[in-house]
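TL;DR need structure tokens for one chain.
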Amino acid sequence: MNTIHTSPTNAIKTRPARSPRGARPAGRGRALAAPLLALGLMAGTAAAATETYSFTIAPGAASGNAAIAGSTNLSGTVIGNHDPVTNPGGTMTRPNLFGLCSGTTNTAFPFSATGSSSGSTALSPSGTFAVTVNPTAGTSSVSGLSLDLLGPSDPSFPTSSSISFPTSFRTCQPTGIFPAGTYPVPLGNLVVSEMTAAQTAPATGTLTPTGTPGQYTFAVAVPVEVTTTYALGSIPATESVAAAVVPLAGTITVSGCTATVSFAIDVEANETIAGPVAGPQDVPLDVPNIGGTAHLLADTQIDSVSFTADVTGSGSAPGQIVFKPGDFNRDCVVNTADISAFLAAWFADLANGTHAADFNADGVTNTSDITAFLSAWFAGLN
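>> reply
TL;DR here they are.
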């Protein structure tokens, strides 16, 4: 039996086969995907602790009540509305209590006036706001609070008002006398046509589990700017802007992509304008007298205006999660599925020239987008 011996110098040597020129290594995708998926496995698949939900209070979804009070002090001059060309039958004002009414003399006289009003009315607030819940820290934050506190109503309240004349005068057309003193005058109703509250700064408060999964109570004091527009009779509308704090509290229940909130609000707005401030001119002012109604025109200045409102309300609203940038597949959870979805889009962009995975929005899909995505993905886990 013959035995064949081979020496080391005659051993058969093999060399790895070369890829065809220009071909992409088959394992490139796996090589990039594996580290990313490993990062995901390290982070786990639990939902992120912190989520933000955006809520809309639809008209009719909330109800409330407003207690409103306003007062004003005015001064200026009054004169009859007579004009020899455009209104020859109008009222003329003359000095002294007695005299003839011939001619067209029309003299202005000083006055001061006060008006006050108060009452309450039902409201239907509407608006939007967002709540960020952080169960780990036990905090809730409110952002973007914007409320229309009145809803569709323009509440109106009767006014108690009077006018005082330090100087006696008389009127012609109709004939009447106005001894120096104070007279009731119908200035009209106090009408509130706008009352809005807009958040002015970030606000963070408490978040407490109720014992029901996904349900918490929250309480946040939200700084706002309250804008109110109101008018007293024929006096043009005044806009009041005042800083206030809205205590927003209630219960929030979260479930994946959606949430519901039950809430209560209490808005107090107070403003005082100290004059003198130039007021409206040629304001029609009808003052009843023994001879009939004197038709006067008032040039005014506002000596002071005060306005207070206390608005309370409650209601409920549906909410939608605010997607985090790292939630690439938009399933409301930041986890490894987002990495897989991003990688699929990234390779598809390279093959097709598209930009679905252009995460940093620089117009090019490349490795910079992977870095930007991973940064956002890890931020979304916290």
